[in-house]
Write a structure and sequence with these properties.
The protein has about 130 residues and is of the alpha/beta class. It has four helices and six strands. It has a single domain, classed as Transcription Regulator spoIIAA (2-Layer Sandwich). Strands 1-2-3-4-5-6 form a six-stranded mixed sheet. Helix 2 links the parallel strand 4 and strand 5. Helix 1 packs parallel to helix 2. The protein is globular. The protein starts with a strand and ends with a helix.
Length: about 130
């Protein structure tokens, strides 16, 4: 089931629930989220997770070719929330440039990274 959120940043993501698992798929619009809208994006993503116990979250970034520090900050905020609630977060579909950014920032050792959304979902569901 896809949950549609409305607002200025709602085209940057689709949020899908699969049982206890939340799949957040970034779209190409994520690359165009203007400075100042990152808080709106954060609310779209974080608010539903605040009430979950042991949230399982997959960020699928296979449609995203570039992201910067604002999105990294969002990933870290989400990860901290998920971790504090006893859950797990994983990333999937990263291109070589994005993987390198995560390697340089040492975030590639913080989050499991999978080649595909399917692999990430299977791994979290088996966990």
């Amino acid at each position: 089931m896809v949950v549609h959120q409305s607002g200025p940043a709602d085209e940057a993501f689709t949020i899908e629930r699969r049982g206890d698992l939340t799949v957040i798929t970034g779209t190409e619009e994520l690359e165009n989220v203007e400075y100042g809208l990152e808080e709106a994006v954060s609310k779209l993503i974080l608010k539903p997770l605040e009430s979950e116990v042991e949230p399982q979250v997959v960020f699928d970034l296979s449609q995203v070719k570039f992201f910067g520090s604002n999105f990294l900050a969002l990933l870290i905020r989400c990860w901290k929330l998920v971790l504090a609630r006893g859950g797990t977060m994983a990333l999937s579909g990263l291109d070589a440039r994005s993987r390198e950014l995560l390697r340089v920032t040492s975030l590639d050792i913080v989050w499991p990274i999978y080649d595909s959304k399917r692999e990430a979902i299977e791994a979290l569901l088996l966990d």
